[in-house]
Amino acid sequence: EVSRNRRCDAVSSSTTDVTELAEIDWDKIDFGLKPTDYMYAMKCSRDGEFSQGQLQPFGNIDINPAAGVLNYGQGLFEGLKAYRKQDGNILLFRPEENAIRMRNGAERMCMPSPTVEQFVEAVKTTVLANKRWIPPPGKGSLYIRPLLMGTGAVLGLAPAPEYTFLIFVSPVGNYFKEGVAPINLIVETEFHRATPGGTGGVKTIGNYAAVLKAQSIAKAKGYSDVLYLDCLHKRYLEEVSSCNIFIVKDNVISTPEIKGTILPGITRKSIIEVARSQGFKVEERNVTVDELVEADEVFCTGTAVVLSPVGSITYKSQRFSYGEDGFGTVSKQLYTSLTSLQMGLSEDNMNWTVQL
Ligand code: COI
Q: Would the keyword Amino-acid biosynthesis turn up in this protein's UniProt record (predicted)?
């Protein structure tokens, strides 16, 4: 057990002294888990208040077999990234948006949640304690994974009596094995990700287990991922398993509107705001599967994915292709604007980054 004082030392020394990098091959990182030094845990007891969060060495956690999260899926997660700048400073991207989204999800899942301040402070503490795992500039980012779970024991179906907020981190590179090359999607016509009135609009863990089957089938056929349609009409685009979708036609950018079945992505929202600030017309609306035929460009957005161009989409054995073998003009412009901002390569005129 590391004492509380030593835990604090670990954080403060990491902010001042620890400048060296972990010894891994930074040119070879993908989106796989690399164990780091510390994780952060904060418990919430029956009074509904979170308190006394602290760092502890990264490792397995003890959990009651009857925990709400294990039995009834009462859990949420978040994802955000930290980038190392050339001058050594560390940038977080809109962490308070993740905090707010977790609070919204917690309300839907009958869970208490940390305050926005608690969430952001915990993220900062965890990142600084693991500073040596933040990739050098241009080599990737530190992916931050906050979890909120019902860790109290329940047997009958009910909200758990106790909750744990936990953050772990891992250095990551590109999400798709294609790297920044275009991905190939298949429109899913059998399975659905979300239903009206369900939990598709919050980042609950069960949404991700539910897409594994379709994703595995698609991957076995050589596709990068699955594009879901709405379950009522089987006609409107919803999202990909791990990211939101956009189409571009005649320089107008369109993306499915948020209506409870689509995850309100922070990258999605940021891309919309960046695009509008650059004079693009952006429509949040019902986008039909037929519009894929005429689209000039298609791209996906997400924290893990960042902005990924889509090279082709297959729908009922028809294949629609976009561009030759690279980014479309609009996709590329938005990708560059967003990533320059996130990495601190351009001035943050949106006031989105938080420097550590
Ligand atoms: C993220 O983009 O951060 C996500 O949470 C998606 C996940 C499937 C990696």
A: yes
